[in-house]
């Protein structure tokens, strides 16, 4: 199966409207999921640092992210630093074995946006009923919720340089959600 592609490069700002808020389409960066009772053990053996609890995310040394969605489900997000090479390699090297660890391809199922800047909570408040202010929804927090009437995964990926959220939604709703984000900006 071929991946759907946008016309711009991954990690390049698609739109920057406010001097303190930017929307970047990261959909072309690799991402993959793993589910099963042995998934944590498998990912740790591959040198991933995993969150201790569901609905948490941990930045990896290479800039990628490990996101824990439930007790036994993980989502790995590629880094713009290596164009997601590490995550793409993890997906390619996985093979079915007796361990309870199953691959969940996410490249074609989820679109991925980065919303960054000082006004991120205000922008998201227009779309989502969950309080995403940093005092409540701090770095590493994950919300599986609804925004603009579609299911989304929101990850607080704030860095020392700037506040930012990763937002994943159904790929089929990408254009709709992009317009909703643009309208909220």
Verbal overview:
The strands form 2 sheets. This protein has a 6-stranded antiparallel β-sheet with strand order 1-2-8-11-10-9, covered by helices on one side. Strands 4-5-6-3-7 form a 5-stranded antiparallel β-sheet, with helices on one face. It is globular and about 45 Å long. The protein has 2 domains: 13-29 and 108-185, Gyrase A, domain 2 (2-Layer Sandwich), CATH 3.30.1360.120; 31-106, 2-Layer Sandwich (Alpha-Beta Plaits). The protein is an alpha+beta fold. It has helices spanning 39-45, 85-93, 120-125, 174-184; strands at 13-18, 21-25, 31-35, 56-59, 65-68, 73-77, 102-105, 110-117, 142-147, 150-156, 164-170. It starts with 12 loop residues before the first strand and ends with a helix.
Topology (elements, then pairings):
Layout: E1 13-18, E2 21-25, E3 31-35, H1 39-45, E4 56-59, E5 65-68, E6 73-77, H2 85-93, E7 102-105, E8 110-117, H3 120-125, E9 142-147, E10 150-156, E11 164-170, H4 174-184
Antiparallel strand pairs: 1-2, 2-8, 3-6, 3-7, 4-5, 5-6, 8-11, 9-10, 10-11
Which tags fit this structure?
4 helices; Gyrase A, domain 2; Alpha-Beta Plaits; five-stranded antiparallel sheet; alpha+beta; six-stranded antiparallel sheet
State the helical fraction.
Answer: 10-25%
Q: Architecture of the largest domain in CATH?
A: 2-Layer Sandwich
Average predicted confidence as pLDDT: 91
Q: What count of domains describes the coordinates?
A: 2
Q: What order do the strands of the largest sheet run in, or round the barrel if closed?
A: 1-2-8-11-10-9
User: Given this structure, which CATH class of the largest domain is correct?
Assistant: Alpha Beta
**Shape type:** globular
Main beta sheet: strand number and arrangement?
A: 6 strands, antiparallel
Q: How far is it from the N-terminal to the C-terminal residue, by CA?
A: 34 Å
CATH topology of the largest domain: Gyrase A, domain 2
Low-pLDDT windows of residues: 1-9
CATH superfamily of the largest domain: Probable tRNA modification gtpase trme, domain 1
């Amino acid at each position: 199966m071929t991946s759907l592609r946008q016309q711009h490069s991954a990690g390049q700002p698609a739109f920057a409207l406010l001097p303190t808020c930017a929307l970047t389409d990261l959909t072309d960066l690799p991402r993959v999921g793993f589910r099963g009772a042995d998934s944590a053990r498998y990912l740790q053996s591959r040198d991933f640092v995993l969150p201790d609890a569901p609905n948490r995310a941990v930045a990896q040394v290479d800039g990628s992210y490990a996101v824990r969605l439930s007790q036994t489900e993980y989502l790995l997000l590629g880094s713009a630093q290596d164009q997601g090479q590490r995550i793409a390699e993890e997906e390619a090297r996985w093979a079915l074995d007796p361990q309870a660890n199953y691959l969940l391809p996410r490249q074609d199922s989820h679109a991925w946006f980065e919303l960054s800047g000082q006004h991120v909570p205000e922008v998201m408040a227009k779309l989502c009923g969950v309080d995403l202010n940093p005092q409540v929804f701090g770095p590493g927090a994950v919300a599986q919720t609804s925004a603009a009437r579609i299911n989304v995964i929101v990850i607080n990926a704030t860095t020392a340089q700037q506040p930012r959220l990763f937002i994943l939604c159904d790929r089929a709703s990408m254009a709709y959600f992009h317009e909703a984000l643009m309208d909220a900006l």
